Amino acid sequence: MNDIFNRFVKENRQLIDQRLNALFESDHDLNPDLREMMEYSVDAGGKRIRPLIMLAVLKTLGWKIGQEELTVGAALEAVHTYSLIHDDLPAMDNDDLRRGRPTSHKKFGEAEAILAGDGLLTIAFQWLVSTRFEPTIQRNLVSELALDAGPSGMVAGQLLDIQGNTRQYTLEKLRHLHELKTGKMLLFPAKAALIISDTDSDVAHLIVDFFRQFGLAFQIHDDIIDVTKSSAELGKTAGKDQNLNKNTYVNLLGLTDAKAELHQVLKNCQNDLDKLTRLNQGIEVEILEGFLMYLK
């Protein structure tokens, strides 16, 4: 990864973690047991990719990052963590390991894990409306997050994933599944940055397309490493999707063709960045390029 991106990640991941801790600590009405369960999964680690995407787009656009932007980033991480807690439940993927430690339902119990996820989802919207952004920006952030995380986005994708346990999907159907389940919540951070910075231009359209392609590449990469890395390396159970014959890019295309598909999608991402620099030579894209290194 490039040095600029490495510095960006190191500095801003720390700021995101600090903001998450501050938001939990300042909420004196939060049930202490729920707080422990919610923080257990939030503090389990993770790359903080979703809030980092939002901050990276803001920085690329020359926007100054402050507490309000970090609060939005914290809300993104809360929604992502809720989705992981629920995804790991026995009724869903039934996983015992997440980020190298016992999943929430293994640590606290199934009912408690459901409630911890519910708490993280709803507190995210509480945090969004606590920001000092103009009401129009707040409203747009809440509306877009509800669409992308809810029954028109990530939740719908999760349902398609479950339904796929009993049916074989085409490549087109699989792409649609992951556009919803994974892609929406990797694209929303970029859209959030564009809402905050009030950017609506050809630059914005290229950034949106870049992260739409990135979401697809992210899922293909995830399917590949599920069968090529160990549980210790992944921090979760390896090979489970393949063993269950789930609808994945590897199961559908084979490992070699899945890698070729990933290579093509990453090439599409780079093409978007090249267009961006040609469109506006004042824009530095090194930080955005750094996200692609996660997948190589």
Automatic annotation (TrEMBL):
Its cofactor is Mg(2+). Pfam families: polyprenyl_synt. One of its GO terms (biological process) is terpenoid biosynthetic process. Keywords: Coiled coil, Isoprene biosynthesis, Magnesium, Metal-binding, Transferase. CDD domains: Trans_IPPS_HT. The keyword Transferase applies. Its EC number is 2.5.1.10. GO terms for molecular function: (2E,6E)-farnesyl diphosphate synthase activity; metal ion binding. Residues 259-286 form a coiled coil. GO terms for cellular component: cytoplasm. It catalyses: isopentenyl diphosphate + (2E)-geranyl diphosphate = (2E,6E)-farnesyl diphosphate + diphosphate. It comes from the Bacteria. Gene3D superfamilies: Farnesyl Diphosphate Synthase. Belongs to the FPP/GGPP synthase family. This is Farnesyl diphosphate synthase.
